[in-house]
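dumping these here so i dont lose them again. two proteins, back to back, each one seq then structure tokens. dont judge the mess
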Amino acid sequence: MSLTSIFGNEDKKLYDTIQTHAAGPAGTLPLTRDELIKAPSGDVFGMTLNAGMGWQASKLAGDDVMILSTLGGMRAEDGHPIAVGLHTGHFELGLQVKSAADKITALGGVPYAAYVTDPCDGRTQGTTGMFDSLPYRNDAATVFRRLIRSLPTRKAVIGVAACDKGLPAMVMALASMHDLPTVLVPGGATLMPTIGEDAGTVQTIGVRVANHELSYEDAIRLGCQACASAGGGCQFLGTAGTGQVVFEGMGLALPHSALAPSGQPIWEEIAKDSAVAATDMIHSGLTTKDIITDDAIENAMMIHAAFGGSTNLLLHIPAVAYAANLHVPTVHDWARINKEVPRLVSVLPNGPVYYPTVYAFLAGGVPEVMLHLRKLGLLHENVMTVTGQTLGENLDWWEKSDRRKLCRQRLEEIDGISPDEVIMSPDQAKVRGLTSTITFPVGNIAPEGSVIKSTAIDKSVIDDDGIYRHTGPIKVFTSEKAAIKALKTQGDINKGDTMVVMGGGPQGTGMEETYQLTSALKQLSFGKHVALITDARFSGVSTGACFGHIGPEALSGGPIGKLQNGDIVELIVDTINLEGKINFIGTKDQPVSYEEGAEILASRPLHPGVGPDPDLPDDTKLWAALESVGGGTWKGCVYDVDKIVATINAGKEALDKNKSENLTVESK
């Protein structure tokens, strides 16, 4: 490498084209003399900048509408990649941004576009990139808010997002814009390959080859074709898909906008219609605080339960509620709603039939599910939505709409699937054995609680009374790396084992996602007979007897960090009544009661192998410290600024007092 290799092949004609002046835009700023004198200089200069970018001068005074997105990569007009993004979920979002912008322009407004792209949790599985995953959400929400405030003339904000962290970050930012009109455009779902595996299953090809349960040739073929279209979130109801349906259920997105097939005309039309809604909100005076209310948050939680959504929304919905200055849902709120609301949707990863999420869209999506919940009297129908109408009015329209009829009809035409097999009535769901989504086991290992997607425990390991029971000695791992290595080594993990992965909470890894482990257990033939306990979190597509979010985390002195190889652990999950226990009950030679077990764990030191991962970034260490002051994972990992400031001030006072006392001692 040398300067010659870099500059040596330049075309010398480049220098002949250099100019230092240009005529500048034609026209004049559309301002009266009085407006020019009284307006802030920034507002006037903003028009100058817009004219400089080529906006027609006579139209500079239209309503400014900001379009934020998580767009990533660079896509040519013909669709081929100039530079790939970090995932498909943001690669095609520019098409939705363009559709929204064109409509705003047609309506006389001035569209602005700004971008904060997002990482892929699938891409970072098993790598140090996962240490930035959850912390990124807070950072992105901060940048989104700063961008919104950096356009003082904005009249409304449209957010376009699809995936695991960019989507909740976007909604956190929108929710904090209490007095502005805001609309969310869900980024949709990628298509399934005609023959092949979904993007969740395909992430296990390595561990299946290692265990001789998949051939190398099949693995590399399946791995190439799993993402059958270039855009959209994964084909299962993971965090991306769950976020889309939940935030539509909150009223922040148009009816029947979540999970649309990315890149297709109906998906682009959603962005165009959302621009109309945002413009109408400007003129009607409807703002975000009118839409995101305590009742709207509860509706979103009901949609989460009815779809059987990702446990990661236990982190994101509370964060959105906090941003909106509302009641932050507690474990008790989640448990109550999951007991009241039946699961009605049959898609990946819960089943009972593993349909892709695009099927749920064609079957009617969120409004179809809401029709069933309305008949049960569960919904808050009087909440306002971005349509300018109440939820009840939206559902009245949906029930008789051509959109509903034609989409459901299309599913039967192209795939021969009855929409009522994908989105079921409560009676049909009960007959098919669908159980509610989430259980929150507690016990001497998890005194602050834990979470398990109980609906996704393999039915064959649940007793006839609907209760999952698993008791036996544990195998302890102080990192996910060690745990996945054991799963890839034949004979290290066997039928009946209980794996304990400690040190995966916020202070250890930024609360990493352990889909490497849960997906392997899902796909390995013996995996349904293995339980997993961790203070880390799970991917939305995770299934199985996996207990996460153990609190307190190991590095906060939590009992999980005191467990040892050979300890006997008892796991009980009532999948019908949604109650569970997770307890240390001694050893093979010395069984103890739950209370005695708690005392033993309290007296033990922290496992010597537990500590922050040596590669944990300083950024994530800071995030972990700040979110712990705000209430930690069960409060949504938010930054409670008042509490953080109070804690810092108290610390400074203590340090100043200590310094003063030391100086006094030295002076004597």
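---- next one ----
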Amino acid sequence: MSLSQPSCNKNTSVNPTDFKSEKKSIARLAGTAAMMLVLTGCQTVNDLDTGSTEAVQKKTVHQPVARAKKTKAPTAKPVVEKRPQDLWERIRRGLGMNLDNNHPWVMTELRWYAKNQGYFNRVADRSAPYLYFIIKEAEERGVPLELALMPVVESAYDPFAYSHAGASGLWQFMPATGTDYGLEQNWWYDGRRDVVAATRAALDYMVRLHNAFGDWELALAAFNSGPGRVQRAINRNRSKGKPTTFWDLGLPRETTAYVPKLIALGKIVRDPEKYGISLKPVPNKPYFAKVKTGGQLDMAKAAELSGISLNELYRLNPGLNRWSTPPEGPDHLLVPVDKAKSFQKELAGLPAEDRLRWKRYTVKSGDSLSTIARRYETRSQLIREVNKMDGDMIRVGQSLLIPVPANGKENYTLTASQRRKAQQNSNVSGRYKVDYTVKSGDSFWTISRQFSVGINELARWNNMAPRDTLRVGQKLAIWSKGSGSSDSIIRRVNYTVRSGDSLSRIADRFNVQVQQIENWNSFDSKYIHPGQLLTLYVDVTRAYD
């Protein structure tokens, strides 16, 4: 569906007619004028330029014949619409949905948006690096430019957004849908957060949904809640003789708000002053360029060579999970347009041994390839490849070459692991933090029951979704309510087991429960022994021996 205005073939033009003799007939002149009207009509770009044809008509038809010897019929000048300087204006010119809809659902969302200027300021700042590319991709598909506002509804234009249902990125792709549209997801990389790949996948998906439902409102609803659910709602209404528009279907609450939000946003972009909103200008020019890296590259080194901060590099490449680009690709990075050429030049002169930092590690008793890989935030496969190993067998004293972060992993604040740590350390008012190690058989459900917390909040504290898989040895943050009053002061206590101690005696002494002690500690057996160190979380305002 193309929403662009009709335009002329660029090879069509009007040639001026030379009147060399006063004996030329008036009929000839009138015929020329008629042809001029036909040709100039195709050069009107939009409704704002409708006066141009009338002006040509007056000058040509009503020009006195006696003066024709000294003049030429005027050449019709094409009316060229000025290129918008601001991306909001560019979106405004491409709006194509029914924005005159004043359904109560729309008006509810509109009232909220109209009261939140700060929200639009944040959205403008976040969208600035991505909006030009998204608009360009939407225009190439001929879709309404309201679709460029979908990431406002989905993620508030946060490329690292992650929902409790497991959706990720600007467009909030679920894992299965992302896979269906070629968005690879592995330890190194998540294509759902890749701005270029995910944008193309989302717009392709929207075109497919529009082709299936024949309606942009239904296509948007299907993007949010799934095409199967929307089709079932349509079938249900049709069987009862009811209307089958989006506004008549019994869809989930989230979906019934989703489409109205987008229409409300379209109304505000169309006429922000009407609703008391000021849209911060976003320049109508490319923000980033793609540069081939030629292989795996440490992100800190890439930031240094490109001349931008490490965080900015991750925000342009949010699909990267780790401290380097993936060993098996994608082998490119997005950098600001004005940095691309110098970055290419620096990469061309970078020695292969400087692409990554390497550490020589000597295998110790109890090591395994997987534990070493986890310790250095890499993969066993990469260690095998670097050290030319056929399998996972290692021996004590063996020397291994391991790629490691050049700047210390804590400085790569936007990697998946560091984002998770930041979330885990976000203080929860009125609770104390328990560092929990996942054991065999654990799930979000079993852990939430042990600590009397909700599954969704447990997942949120750890920047995960309830459906995500837990692995044995994984560290989780649990913000427990504790057993004291609202004035409790909870402190971590390291307790050394004494002779004659039992879990029940220790629990009584510190006013905690045996199950809590078991949750706070990983026991090799069901027995404790003198000298064993236990971690306890104790209300220090309550007396204990």
